[in-house]
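hey
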């Protein structure tokens, strides 16, 4: 089971305030634990929404609309994420509870969401085969 720990943005992260060295060290220790446990798939911080781009589809079948940041409501935005693969929902919660306060100022909030496996989205065997081939190709390209 894959889970994404979504670190919610704050006014500081949206202002581009960089984390303290103490927080960077704590996050690196946490990521080391995830690596040692063999559950870490990815972990990254995101730049503020002022450098972001939002694509919306305002009309069914219509052209997408491009909107440059910044966006409002920092609490609804994402400042970073950690993607893990674990055996259970409970294990995902345990790992999320161990993450240091992601902003270091008591404003941290983490949303934990399970990632769909393609087989859960479609029972069409042809679609499943095609998806497996695409994922394999993507891995091979990355290994280069």
């Amino acid at each position: 089971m894959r889970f994404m720990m979504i670190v919610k943005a704050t006014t500081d992260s949206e202002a581009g305030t960089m984390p303290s060295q103490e927080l960077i060290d704590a996050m690196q220790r946490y990521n080391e634990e995830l690596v040692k446990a063999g559950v870490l798939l990815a972990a990254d911080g995101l730049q503020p929404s002022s450098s972001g781009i939002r694509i919306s589809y305002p009309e069914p079948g219509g052209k997408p609309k491009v909107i440059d940041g910044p966006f409002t409501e920092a609490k609804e935005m994402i400042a970073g994420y950690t993607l893990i693969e674990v055996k259970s929902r409970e294990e995902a919660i345990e790992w999320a509870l161990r993450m240091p306060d992601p902003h270091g100022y008591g404003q941290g909030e983490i949303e934990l969401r399970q990632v769909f496996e393609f087989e859960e989205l479609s029972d069409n065997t042809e679609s499943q085969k095609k998806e497996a081939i695409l994922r394999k190709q993507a891995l091979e390209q990355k290994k280069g």
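Residues 125-143 form the longest helix (19 residues). The first strand starts at residue 2 and ends at 8.
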